[in-house]
């Protein structure tokens, strides 16, 4: 993770905020000592894991999902 001194952060705040919003977190340091970590609001908190299956019950996958468009796919690649 990139560390930026506080003076540079003040000078380039807009660019750094945009960078963080795109998912590139960074640390702001004062006199070489890390002070804060800046990250997007929707990014996972440090140590937080992404939940597998968080959409369970909200979406439905058709029973024939693996066979959908099989003929077209075979036709495209089996020439």
Automatic annotation (TrEMBL):
<comment type="function">
    <text>Antitoxin component of a type II toxin-antitoxin (TA) system.</text>
</comment>
<dbReference type="InterPro" id="IPR036165">
    <property type="entry name" value="YefM-like_sf"/>
</dbReference>
<dbReference type="InterPro" id="IPR051416">
    <property type="entry name" value="phD-YefM_TA_antitoxins"/>
</dbReference>
<dbReference type="Pfam" id="PF02604">
    <property type="entry name" value="PhdYeFM_antitox"/>
</dbReference>
<protein>
    <recommendedName>
        <fullName>Antitoxin</fullName>
    </recommendedName>
</protein>
<comment type="similarity">
    <text>Belongs to the phD/YefM antitoxin family.</text>
</comment>
<dbReference type="InterPro" id="IPR006442">
    <property type="entry name" value="Antitoxin_Phd/YefM"/>
</dbReference>
């Amino acid at each position: 993770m990139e560390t930026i001194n506080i003076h540079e952060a003040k000078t380039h705040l807009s660019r750094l905020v945009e960078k963080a919003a795109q998912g590139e977190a960074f640390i702001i340091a004062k006199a070489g000592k890390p002070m804060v970590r800046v990250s997007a609001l929707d990014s996972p908190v440090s140590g937080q894991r992404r939940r597998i299956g968080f959409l369970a019950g909200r979406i439905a996958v058709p029973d024939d999902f693996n066979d959908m468009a099989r003929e077209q796919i075979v036709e495209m690649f089996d020439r």
